[in-house]
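Subject: Sanity check before I submit

Could someone independently write out the structure tokens for this chain? I want to compare against mine line by line before I put it in a report. The sequence has 261 residues.
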Amino acid sequence: GGAAGHALVAGVLEHFFPKAVDVPSVTTSSNLQHLTGLYVPTRAPQTTLQKLTQLFMPLYRPISVKNPEPGVLELTFPSNPTAPSRWLEIEPNVFQRDDGKDTLVIKNDNLFLDSVAPKGFVHLNGFQQLFHQLWFPLACLIILIAATILTRVVLRSQAHAYGFWLTLVTTILALVFVVGLVVFLLTGIGELAYGNVPLLITVILAIPLLLIPLTLGEAVFTLLPQAGGTALMRSSTALVTLATLALLAWLHYWNLLGWRF
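---
Independent answer below. Compare away.
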């Protein structure tokens, strides 16, 4: 009896029948669509060849942020894609998980998750998302192959074949590089994740450097009529030049121009 008895009873009730967690109330009905998208961990490699590991390692895969209803964000983590969590806005740009445990802040395309292990993330734009990164080099290759065939068709018996040979060599090198890169991603990406650089990727990284002078040659052939060839042939060479420049930009994004280990 007495105070000791009441304390014992209160302790038992608290243990077996804990109080419900106070769920924070939504303080705004604003549209949060501008905060949605994919966010990649800031600790993911950005300036070296190891950036390629973002394509395969769950540790570096982005989290998905959606806005299912006003004032609420829904986060899906790659470690548990079938169980999204709900976050309620308690202040502008500040959210709390619906169980009241963790806090989330999103501002200026940066996301900070204050949990047991605090983490930072940065927003990915549309081009940076995985789907676009996979089809983009494939589209460049298709354009290169189609333009090479077109150049050969319009060449026929012309005396000036510089455009065709530039196009052919560029397309072959680009094709060899992409095939070699796919083989490396399927067989050697694990070594790269641990800091080891396989010989295959070291060798094929020389190919993009060869594409640069070839692209300059294609640009000269396209812009100077005295270089030879009809307007249609120079147009097809210009298409190859644009596709190669786009491919080089993609390679630069993934740190594949030069040996950036």
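---
OP: Matches mine. For the report I'm noting this point. The chain is about 45% helix and 15% strand.
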